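Support request, please re-run this one:
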Amino acid sequence: MLKHFTGNRMAMPVREALQVLIDTRDHSTIVVTNQGSSRVWPLLASHSLDFHYNPSTMGGAIPLALGLAISSPNSHVMVITGDGSLAMSLGSLITVVASGSTNLTVVVLNNGLYEVTGGQTVATNVVGVDYVGLAKATGFPAAFEFDRIESWRDEAQSVLKVSGPRLISLCVARTVAADLATEALDIEMQLKNLRAALRSG
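Re-run finished. Output below.
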């Protein structure tokens, strides 16, 4: 069981944690981001198969990514969600496993905060939820946690090759305020571009 997060906990910078995913992604991987990550990822990379889902639908990213994984069984789909968003939809983990989809990776940015709504503490942090244990209890065959950027860089490539679905919990520090203030990308235009990229692929 994880301890309640404190200011001294091990954590990696959000940008560096996401950069590892950017550096290791396959060119054909579909990436869905949500909330905080949907503001930071576009500052680091741009790809035709990126979809930044930020209509303030907390908990909606995993179901959306699962739909993409089911409809694109030959593609790897990676969804990046926050611990606050996952707390809103814990049942989505059960749905992922029940679907039988093996081509989905759920990445949880775990900082114990609802960052986009003001930095309130996530209830799962208060009670010390173990995301790896939770994922395994729902049937995920692979679940991992990292709190040091060095070990995450060293192991990311091999972890992403393990048979899925996979859950990866990344203990991250608070996102830089200026990054969170990045203007959200237009959803309609993103949908148009993603559909075109999926058709061409």
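The domain at 14-200 is CATH 3.40.50.970 (Rossmann fold). The radius of gyration is 16 Å.
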